[in-house]
Write a structure and sequence with these properties.
single chain; about 280 residues; 7-stranded mixed β-sheet; 14 strands; binds zinc ion
Length: about 280
């Protein structure tokens, strides 16, 4: 399986030069095997997809973690939705009182957007999921709710023997500096367990986090603890804070590597980079 970062920035897109080394587009990751391509989240990164690669595929699958704007901002401008009879599947969580479809209807309706969802020419299938398991071709997908404001899913995706876990927005220890003692109480733990790759929220520094408790995001120290405890093999720090320039992200990573000797790789997710597992 391959994966490619199309959007790595959190909260809002940026075209500032100081953000372009690691990317200015918001959350989107593409996963592919020989038969299928999955698109994780539909931030502005989705607009950088190479549609030629999809020309001979029977369907497109978009897996949404949640409906915050930075994860759906590119969806309304995603060209395949406007392609007649193309099969497009959107997977994601519903709300506490409204369905996924009705939430997407609100986004695809005036005054926010001129084309209502019912008038999209593609063959649209909307799948509301919660703590679920399902397959798309050879991809075995497990989802679970994680701590973040509003219903938010994390994804664990298995292809053959390899596992990628994607949790772009997550606050695994609200207001604490330590994970719960029991694994089963730790938000997102079962999704991360022994994953080959973990792509995870890393919005804040340790120093900044105390002023952002309850905002739904991680400090780097939180992610590192979670990755270590879960036994992941490679960690990509993701959902980069748009207030941090790229050189700050690099300095923070250097400091992490000096202070923590982790038994796994830690990398900064970089827009445009593709990896094979
Ligand atoms: Zn986000
Ligand atoms: Zn969010």
């Amino acid at each position: 399986m391959k994966f490619k970062f199309l959007g790595t920035r959190g909260s809002y897109p940026s075209q500032k030069e100081e953000h372009l080394s690691y990317g200015g587009n918001t959350s989107c990751v593409e996963l592919s095997n020989h038969q299928h391509r999955l698109i994780l989240d539909a931030g502005t990164g989705i607009l950088g997809l190479d549609f030629e690669l999809y020309a001979n595929l029977p369907r497109i699958d978009i897996l949404l973690t949640h409906l915050h704007m930075d994860h759906i901002q590119g969806l309304a401008f995603f060209k395949p939705l406007f392609k007649k009879n193309l099969e497009v599947h959107i997977w994601g969580p519903g709300g506490t009182s409204n369905s996924l479809r009705s939430h997407l209807n609100r986004y695809f309706s005036p005054p926010l957007f001129p084309v209502p969802i019912r008038e999209l020419p593609c063959q649209l299938h909307i799948h509301e999921i919660s703590n679920s398991t399902f397959t798309i071709g050879a991809f075995e997908i497990t989802t679970a709710f994680v701590i973040h404001p509003g219903p938010t899913l994390g994804y664990r995706i298995k292809n053959g023997a390899k596992v990628i876990t994607y949790i772009p927005d997550h606050e695994p220890m609200v207001g604490s500096q330590k994970l719960y003692n029991k694994d089963k109480w730790v938000s997102g733990f079962s999704l991360c367990k022994n994953a080959d790759v973990l792509i995870h929220d890393s919005m804040y520094t340790k120093e900044e986090y105390p002023s952002k408790i309850g905002w739904g995001h991680s400090s780097t120290e939180h992610v590192i603890q979670l990755a270590r405890r879960a036994g992941v093999k490679q960690l990509f720090l993701f959902h980069h804070n748009p207030e941090y320039p790229d050189n700050f992200l690099e300095q923070r990573l250097d400091r992490i590597r000096q202070n923590h000797h982790e038994p796994y790789d830690i990398l900064l997710a970089t827009q445009g980079m593709e990896y094979e597992l």
